[in-house]
Design brief:
Layout: E1 25-28, H1 46-55, E2 57-60, H2 66-81, E3 91-93, E4 100-104, H3 106-109, H4 111-117, H5 120-130, E5 134-144, E6 152-155, H6 157-165, E7 172-178, E8 189-191, E9 198-201, H7 211-214, H8 225-235, E10 238-240, E11 247-251, E12 256-258, E13 267-276
Antiparallel strand pairs: 1-9, 2-11, 3-4, 4-5, 5-13, 6-12, 7-11, 7-13, 8-10, 8-12
């Protein structure tokens, strides 16, 4: 699809009906994956752009120095240890435990992570992939403590953001910054390559205040086992592993999950969801009311001004 063929603004039509009463439905996506054609001025290589377009994710190494990652790890540990001082609605605990599972609005709770969210090493990639200025739709710090860290079940972020937040189009990308070593053992991010090219319209209406339970265990807005089996049989299954400091950019509609962590080795990741300025949320497409602000930025967000330089000097 050429850039000249791409519609820039939401037209009011729902291209992705979901939370259906009758049955699950699988349809081709109606939006580009790469919103900008690659050129030699892009912040990623042509091969990386092709991989992202084909697979729906991109794993980048060595974007940040060891000193920068060490500082991020230190601050993330402090945030978790002092979770009782963070707004209650921003903290989600593990099912059946008081252990911190997620801290939302990460950029508001830490100047260092706010600086990270604006770093050109992340922003430039997001702006290239989406061909637009970007803002944070959501930010969070995910912990998966050793022995008790529970799974995140299979889902497409876009399906939830469309149904419950009102994001019109597939024009967002998540950046996951690994703050611990992520191996095949301690519950890493799992992805189905190529799944972003299908939209899974899920069966089952959205309950009121669905987020109150879905943040601990998602049951609504998830694909059926039959669809998951079919897609993995076609394209396989990949684990986004790597040492602390690895960055995983994954397309908003890529199906992903993670296993429980029964090892002694904790896993933690910072997530920044970059949404195109032209893709700001409207009324939810399959919920009575939008989710709270800590889950989805609404109103009149300002584009992020990119910042260069060493994070430790911020």
């Amino acid at each position: 699809m050429n850039i000249t063929q791409r519609t820039e603004q939401f037209t009011g039509r729902d291209n992705y009906p979901t939370r259906l009463k009758d049955a699950e439905r699988v349809t081709p996506r109606a939006d580009p994956v790469l919103w900008r054609d690659w050129s030699d001025t892009a912040p990623i290589s042509q091969a990386q752009a092709r991989d992202y377009d084909s697979n729906g994710y991109l794993i980048c190494n060595d974007l940040f120095s060891k000193g920068e990652i060490d500082r991020l790890i230190e601050v993330s540990a402090d945030l978790r240890a002092n979770g009782q001082h963070i707004r209650t609605e921003d903290v989600v605990t593990e099912p059946g435990s008081d252990a911190v599972r997620t801290i939302f609005r990460l950029d508001e709770h830490s100047p260092l992570f706010a600086r990270l969210a604006a770093d050109t090493r992340l922003i430039d990639v997001a702006r290239f992939l989406l061909d637009d200025e970007v803002y944070l739709h959501q930010s969070r710090l995910n912990y998966k403590p050793g022995f008790i860290g529970k799974e995140f079940y299979w889902h497409s972020d876009f399906e939830t953001w469309h149904a419950e937040d009102g994001l019109p189009r597939m024009r967002a990308v998540s950046a996951s910054i690994l703050l611990t070593d992520n191996s095949a053992l301690n519950g890493p991010l799992l992805l189905i390559p190529g799944s972003h090219r299908h939209f899974i319209a899920c069966q089952g209406e959205t309950p009121d205040a669905n987020h109150k339970t879905s943040l601990k265990q998602q049951k609504v807005g998830v694909p059926s086992e039959a669809v998951l089996e079919r897609l993995t049989k076609e394209a396989g299954l990949e684990a986004a592993t790597g040492p602390a400091g690895t960055v995983v950019f994954f397309e908003c509609n890529t199906l992903h999950a993670s296993n429980s962590n029964v090892t002694p080795f904790p896993r933690s990741n910072a997530f920044f969801v970059y949404n195109a300025m032209s893709n700001q949320p409207v009324a939810p497409f399959a919920a009575r009311a939008p989710r709270p602000a800590f889950l989805a930025s609404r109103g009149a967000p300002q584009p992020i001004a990119p910042v260069r330089g060493d994070l430790t000097e911020a």
